[in-house]
TrEMBL record, chain A:
Belongs to the UPP synthase family. This is ditrans,polycis-polyprenyl diphosphate synthase [(2E,6E)-farnesyldiphosphate specific]. Its main location: endoplasmic reticulum. One of its GO terms (cellular component) is dehydrodolichyl diphosphate synthase complex. Residues 1-15 form the signal peptide. It is found in: Endoplasmic reticulum membrane. Gene3D superfamilies: Decaprenyl diphosphate synthase-like (3.40.1180.10). Keywords: Endoplasmic reticulum, Magnesium, Membrane, Signal, Transferase, Transmembrane, Transmembrane helix. Residues 108-141 are annotated as: Disordered. It comes from Suillus discolor. Its cofactor is Mg(2+).
From TrEMBL, chain B:
Belongs to the UPP synthase family. Coiled coil: none annotated. Its EC number is 2.5.1.-. It comes from Suillus discolor. InterPro entries: UPP_synth-like, UPP_synth-like_sf. The lineage of its organism: Eukaryota, Fungi, Dikarya, Basidiomycota, Agaricomycotina. The chain crosses the membrane at residues 6-29. Pfam families: Prenyltransf. This is Alkyl transferase. One of its GO terms (biological process) is polyprenol biosynthetic process.
């Protein structure tokens, strides 16, 4: 009992210190660089995790997510970021992907000779690269892997329909209204651990079929799975982002500890992680839960300053 | 008494008082919710050493000392499982003399803490070394087998030392195992392969580790860098602290534990208060 009382006192002291520290930091607040300012590096693939703690108002949450996504797409296009992954655990964006496509097509900042967007639903991944231990025969049939990634590609009207990553994209900052092609992946928790399980089922069926069709007696050999093979399946549906921004549409100050809300684990190995802070949100703004350009720029500033040693 | 004697006596007294205050603090913390499983990505040893003009290997030695202190803190708090990232598969890219020094450190220190009367036996901790063990020199593999053998009967807590480890390797191995299990069964229905089954075949799960509650990376880097990606992507509080690992201590750890306790208490209030409101709601048949 006495220990519990002291624990409550400790929590009170800690909360007070955090409150005072937050106030002190606000006084020393420095704004980030502008969107088009030079940065030593920009992510080629950005992911944004949208989080909400308001389960009672799903429609409002959907509106907030959609508006956040439209804003981030606009900024990514202005900067020439090639790929964007939008994630929310519950699948709110996935459930309104048609509305997403419509909003992106009719966004005000798009010039009149505008880009088209095309929705792709990659269910069947490319065949994994041939390995030394197995060969792929047309007799194996098609074992679709449910990776649950919705991809929206935008490209200029009149251009040939080629995959966005074949388009050369300048890496430096652009004029605010330039419109570089952008590939948008919309995912939810169903693209996370469940996708790895789906890949496992695919590999199991593929190996069973291969052994049944194989003339060799190598079915007694232990099954070996190279990392590269699993990687080609999983990244075939969703490449790994370089940088991830976690944005809570109901920002608290001070915020609770960072969580990743079920984002696909395979793709997070080297992803730089940033979380938006309440102070970057415009004050007295009724839509204060939306991600602001200031918050986005601060995230990019942080990414530009990050160092990658890659184990060395 | 001479001045040096007085100063020495004072220092001893202050150290004793500090030790007692730490014990009291840990006792107070233990009155609240305690995480079952905490992971530490022990980053910053080399930069810490460079700050004081020393070699990288000296930083790693300091880091091991911090590991022992933090491990003892976790054991006093009854944290059931601690996982540490000691060596990544990619770390073999480091200069050979540094890699050799790290292998020597691992070979000597693992056996040191596993011996009778040492830290692991004192708190009943079972040691699991997780990772692609075949990549290690044979003499290190022998030392690991010896250290694990010394602690195999311990069952109060678990220490997972990930070396050499990479999360994608762990996930791939789990998928490989699950597929092999499917192949070993006649007419196996692959639809029975679920994320739960893959999770059960991760190295941490096979060693008896509970779900991960807190993930801590030191040195200010804000990436996972291939550590426990599956385990920490959901329902895990992630803390990226600026302190270098050799400097990590209670000043950094206590606020992290308080954050965890706040989360657990908030979720309890979220269940209890609505439950109380439901119980207090008047029955529709009661006359007003």
């Amino acid at each position: 009992m006495v220990a519990s009382l002291f624990l409550w006192l400790l929590h009170f002291v800690h909360a007070s210190l955090v409150f005072l520290t937050t106030k002190f930091r606000k006084r020393r607040y420095l704004p980030p660089q502008s969107l088009t300012a030079y940065r030593s590096k920009l992510p080629k693939h950005l992911a944004i995790i949208l989080v909400s703690h308001d389960a009672a108002n799903p429609k409002h949450t959907e509106e907030l997510y959609l508006e956040c996504l439209v804003r981030v797409v606009k900024w990514c296009k202005a900067l020439g970021i090639e790929q964007l992954t939008a994630y929310d655990a519950e699948g709110t964006l996935l459930g309104c992907s048609d509305i997403v496509k419509e909003r992106l097509t009719h966004h005000d900042d798009l010039p009149t000779d505008e880009s088209e967007s095309e929705v792709e639903y990659p269910l069947t991944p490319p065949l994994s690269e041939a390995s030394d231990s197995r060969s792929h025969s047309p007799d194996l049939g098609d074992f679709p892997v449910q990776l649950n990634v919705t991809t929206v590609c935008s490209f200029r009207k009149g251009a040939s329909h080629h995959r966005p990553r074949e388009v050369a994209v300048r890496r430096r900052a652009h004029h605010k209204h330039s419109h570089n092609p952008l590939t948008l992946h919309i995912i939810s928790r169903s693209a996370s651990k469940a996708a790895i399980a789906s890949a496992a089922r695919f590999l199991s069926d593929e190996e069973v079929c291969r052994r049944q069709n194989s003339q060799d007696l190598d079915h007694v050999k232990a099954y070996e799975l190279p990392i590269s093979e699993l990687n080609s399946i999983l990244e075939g549906g969703l490449p790994s982002p370089d940088f991830m921004i976690v944005h809570d549409v109901h920002l608290q100050d001070p915020p609770p500890p960072l969580e990743l809300h079920g984002f696909p684990p395979w793709q997070m190995a080297l992803t730089e992680i940033h979380r938006t802070i309440a102070h970057d949100v415009a004050p007295n703004n009724p839509m204060a839960s939306l991600i602001t350009e200031e918050a986005f720029c601060r995230a990019l500033d942080e990414y530009a300053g990050a160092q990658f040693r890659l184990g060395r | 008494m001479t001045w040096p004697g007085i100063l020495g006596w004072t220092a001893s007294l202050l150290a004793f008082i500090k030790a007692q205050l730490v014990i009291l603090l840990l006792h107070v913390l233990s009155a609240g919710p305690i995480p079952r499983h905490v992971a530490f990505e022990m980053d910053g040893n080399r930069r810490f050493a460079r700050l004081t003009g020393r070699r990288a290997v000296d930083g790693h030695s300091d880091g091991f000392h911090t590991l022992k202190q933090i491990l003892e803190t976790c054991m006093r708090l009854n944290i059931h499982c601690v996982t540490v990232y000691a060596f990544a598969i990619e770390n073999f890219n480091r200069p050979p003399d540094e890699v050799d020094a790290l292998m020597k450190l691992a070979e000597e220190r693992l056996v040191e803490i596993a011996q009778n009367g040492a830290l692991l036996s004192q708190y009943g901790v079972r040691l699991n070394v997780l990772g692609h063990r075949k990549l290690l020199p044979v003499h290190v593999q022998v030392a690991i087998d010896k250290a694990e053998g010394m602690t195999r009967q311990n069952n109060r807590a678990i220490l997972n030392v990930c070396a050499p480890y990479a999360s994608r390797h762990e996930m791939t191995l789990a998928v490989q195992t699950v597929v092999q299990q499917a192949l070993d069964k006649e007419n196996f229905d692959s639809s029975l392969i679920t994320e739960q089954i893959i999770e059960e075949n991760l190295m941490t799960s096979l060693g008896g580790s509970p779900p991960l509650d807190i993930f801590i990376r030191t040195s200010g880097v804000k990436r996972l860098s291939g550590f426990l990606q599956w385990q920490c992507c959901e329902n895990t509080q992630i803390h990226m602290v600026n302190t270098y690992w050799p400097d990590f201590g209670l000043w950094d750890f206590v606020p992290i534990l308080l954050d965890y306790q706040r989360k657990v208490l908030a979720s309890v209030v979220g269940i209890v208060v609505p439950g109380i409101l439901i119980l207090q709601r008047p029955s529709p048949n009661v006359a007003r």
